[in-house]
């Protein structure tokens, strides 16, 4: 290659980022070298620390720097409600909506027998233990509305059958501000089935 | 924020990359933490080394790890031809085309009096010194076909007037494989003016 070994290695290693191919990696490397060195050094340090230092929360499996994540450390968030999500990005989306004030459990995936992902791999036993210990009143199953997400939600619900815990699933329907013409058929069917009186 | 300080800092510092906003930075951070930690650590190291270690070639201003870049270190590339480009990405595009075997001079910009960028800032004096010392036979002005790029090319050509050096500029025309209907008017005008007999 035309450049120095250091530049080549930088371009090559930038490709570990999702959605970054050869061209984008080159553009990023040149940008940092030409006019973003302080940002690049900061990123180097942040990456190094995060890759070795970030672990999973002992209680909810969310990303954490210590035993417990920021949410589990907050006593106001341990109010007997657990929201089960597939990933930290789902948790973040809910947090950014700003309304939910309970705790979480992050599966880091969903059941997928074909890929060898069973209840143990996504921490369902740990979730059941926690529900047993903490005396949870409501479990919100916020897994994705996909075949695997639905199957995972039903599996968890089955395992908790008869324990007197309120188990809920997020409502499906037309996105707020969405146009009917752009909503897919499955969502529209769900929206019809879940229709409510206007006085509600 | 919902996450740990380490994750927050990682997301924040990923935004130094060009074209990466908050959402993309989050997606990148989660991807690395969930299933790309070895790649993330490698990137951390590559960034750290490149940000402190990469300098400019003493001869052509290209990125280099030592005094001279890979091209200037190659005696076969110092054949009396210098191709002047605005940036390392331009150099890379020419290298990847694979045909050119001479040397380069990387301006790292173009003349822009409004922004205070004069001949000194982009190394034109250094280029003229090098031409004097090395006895260059052809200077290819491959600055961009923009107002600034053209002005920079003309400035360099004027400075070398009467020195008996062949000064050339890359041909404008229809891209190979391009469709006429999608080519802009300026390019088409250049292509007409530069037309050649079919026997050529
Ligand atoms: Zn937690
Ligand atoms: Zn060089």
Overview of this structure, please?
The structure is a homodimer of 200-residue chains. With 200 residues, chain A is α/β, with parallel strands linked by helices. Chain A folds into two domains: 49 residues, RecR Domain 1 (Helicase, Ruva Protein, domain 3); 102 residues, Dna Topoisomerase Vi A Subunit, Chain: A, domain 2 (3-Layer(aba) Sandwich), CATH 3.40.1360.10. In chain A, 42% of the residues lie in helices and 10% in strands. In chain A, the strands form two sheets. In chain A, strands 4-3-5-6 form a four-stranded parallel sheet. In chain A, strands 1-2 form a two-stranded antiparallel sheet. In chain A, a hairpin with a 6-residue loop joins strand 1 and strand 2. Chain A is globular. The termini of chain A are far apart. The model of chain A has no long low-confidence stretch (mean pLDDT 89). At the A-B interface, helix 1, helix 2, helix 3, strand 2 and helix 4 of A face helix 1, helix 2, helix 3, strand 2 and helix 5 of B. The structure holds zinc ion (2 copies). One zinc ion binds next to helix 4 of chain B. One zinc ion binds next to loops of chain A. Chains A, B: Keywords: DNA damage, DNA recombination, DNA repair, Metal-binding, Zinc, Zinc-finger.
């Amino acid at each position: 290659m035309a450049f120095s070994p250091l530049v080549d290695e930088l371009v090559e290693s930038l490709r570990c980022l999702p959605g970054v191919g050869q061209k984008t990696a080159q553009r990023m490397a040149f940008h940092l070298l030409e006019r973003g060195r302080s940002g690049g050094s900061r990123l180097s340090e942040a990456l190094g620390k995060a890759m070795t230092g970030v672990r999973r929360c002992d209680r909810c499996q969310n990303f954490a720097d210590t035993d417990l994540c920021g949410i589990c450390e907050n006593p106001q968030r341990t109010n007997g409600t657990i929201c089960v999500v597939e990933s930290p990005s789902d948790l973040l989306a809910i947090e950014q909506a700003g309304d939910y004030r309970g705790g979480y459990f992050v599966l880091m995936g969903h059941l997928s027998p074909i890929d060898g992902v069973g209840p143990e791999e996504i921490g369902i036993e740990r979730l059941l233990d926690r529900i047993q210990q903490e005396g949870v009143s409501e479990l919100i199953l916020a897994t994705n509305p996909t075949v695997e997400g639905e199957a995972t939600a039903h599996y968890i619900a089955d395992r908790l059958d008869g324990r007197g815990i309120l188990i809920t699933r997020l409502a499906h329907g037309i996105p707020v501000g969405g146009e009917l013409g752009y909503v897919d058929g499955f969502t529209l069917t769900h929206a019809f089935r879940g229709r409510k009186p206007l006085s509600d």
